[in-house]
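Journal club prep, notes for RB
We'll compare a predicted complex against what the paper describes. Inputs for the manganese (II) ion case:
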Amino acid sequence: MTDYVIPAPQTVSIPVRGGGQFPVRRIYCIGRNYAAHSIEMGDNPDRDPPFFFQKNANNLDASGEFPYPPMSQDVHYEVELLVALKEGGTNIPVAQALDHVWGYAPSLDMTRRDLQGEAKKKGRPWEVGKAFERSAPMGPLEAASDVGHLSSGRIELQVNGAVAQEGDLNQMIWKVPEMIAYLSDYFALEAGDVIMSGTPAGVGPIVRGDVMDVRIEGLQPLSVNVI
Ligand code: MN
């Protein structure tokens, strides 16, 4: 038994549809990966090199509830396809990148937009806006061996039954294999790493009592109550 001087934090894991848990190491999130969302955020929609920020593994939450976080008056939804890696590596070629994927899940990159905006303006890091408690609601992970690799299909978020965000996975500026390859040039990826693949246009605020319904073609739907 390891001689820890404080109680060891638990390994974070996310549920798998059909049973089992997927242990999570890191979360990489891509910014501005759909042209229409880049335009709505006032950014250049061209294919500049991608950029990534991180959330913490323990920000993932499959409870179906999103508690409105403190220190913000403007919390936004961003519907995203989550990609979970079963194998890591460095300098992974694009053509082999999908061999590293274990599965996919519907997810939300919840964002304290007011704090993120302030950070952007001051050239500061984004963690206060992005990496707070339970900021990544998600549904159970689905195995690529069951659902295949998702490269096209409708991605949609409904808020209280009305469509708020919609797009197609094939509109990603950087496709999933390209993101894996790119990240692996900068970081040593490992099994358990997770990528959140960016949001289509239509981001907006939620309030307590709202219900967010994620629909990604090829995956089971996810419903999240804002409490
Ligand atoms: Mn996002």
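Talking point for the session: The radius of gyration is 17 Å.
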